[in-house]
Amino acid sequence: MIKQIPQLLNKAQITEIKSLCAKAEFVDGRISNPHSKVKNNLHLGDMDIYETTSKMMLDALMGHEDFQNFAIPQKVSPPWITRYETGMHYGLHPDAAVIPLPDGPLRSDLSCTIFLNDPKSYEGGALRITLSDSAMRFKGAAGSAIVYPSNTLHEVEPITSGERLVGITFIQSRIADNARRHLLYELGEVAALEGLRMREENYSRLQSVQFNLSRMWMDV
């Protein structure tokens, strides 16, 4: 399942991040994957600005109720900003199963792209996610985010004009299996939307199913 988060960052946060990035150094994105033959982008190279922008995006994710309910995060990598200029792209790929971090490895169950600039300011550059024999394309509004399974094949289509600026992060969920996590999310949505209309005993039964499945599947 793919989850779109329309307003993760507010206008003031977007403005501050873009202002910091405008004066920051960016380096070859292959520094994080030197053997990749399909990666052609730039990574934020200024560590002071990285720490500031990463905290802003991470705090926004961890404080967002819908993200918490959907991802059930156990560990989230500090978001890193990447930039795509004209002619750059990231060819079809899955994300690595394990992401090395200073405090220990992270299993990438979910990937997240945080869109930082207006999609009308650049041509091309859609995030294309392959699902079986079809695909979905996304160019989110500034401040929005999309969360999707890390094992899906996906790509960033070539930029034909302008510049694409995004934050990228990876999530280790307390429930590794995508199908199980999706079922719990759907049960939670039904409980939230319909719970007050249910008879009390039926709502308790629904909660019992939710909690018992969590006990069976969740890493704590």
Describe the structure.
With 220 residues, the protein is of the alpha+beta class. The protein is 32% helix and 32% strand. The protein has 5 helices and 17 strands. It has helices at 11-22, 47-62, 65-71, 178-194, 200-217; strands spanning 3-5, 26-28, 39-40, 42-44, 73-76, 80-84, 89-93, 98-99, 106-107, 110-115, 122-124, 127-131, 134-138, 145-149, 154-156, 159-162, 164-173. The strands form 4 sheets. Strands 1, 2, 4, 5, 6, 10, 14 and 17 form an 8-stranded antiparallel beta sheet that branches. A 5-stranded antiparallel beta sheet has the order 3-7-15-12-13, with no helix packed on it. The protein has a two-stranded antiparallel sheet with strand order 8-9. α4 (178-194) packs antiparallel against α5 (200-217).
> Which structural class is indicated by helix and strand composition?
alpha+beta
Low-confidence stretches: none
Gyration radius, rounded: 18 Å
Mean pLDDT, all residues = 94
Shape verdict? globular
- Total of DSSP H or I helical runs spanning 4+ residues: 5
Number of strands: 17
Strand content: 25-35%
Secondary-structure element order, N to C: EHEEEHHEEEEEEEEEEEEEHH
Describe the main β-sheet briefly: 8 strands, antiparallel
Helix coverage percent = 25-40%
Oligomeric state of the chains? single chain
N-to-C span: 22 Å
SSE diagram, text form:
Blueprint: E1 3-5, H1 11-22, E2 26-28, E3 39-40, E4 42-44, H2 47-62, H3 65-71, E5 73-76, E6 80-84, E7 89-93, E8 98-99, E9 106-107, E10 110-115, E11 122-124, E12 127-131, E13 134-138, E14 145-149, E15 154-156, E16 159-162, E17 164-173, H4 178-194, H5 200-217
Antiparallel strand pairs: 1-14, 2-4, 3-7, 4-6, 5-17, 6-17, 7-15, 8-9, 10-14, 10-17, 11-16, 12-13, 12-15
Helix pairs in contact: 4-5
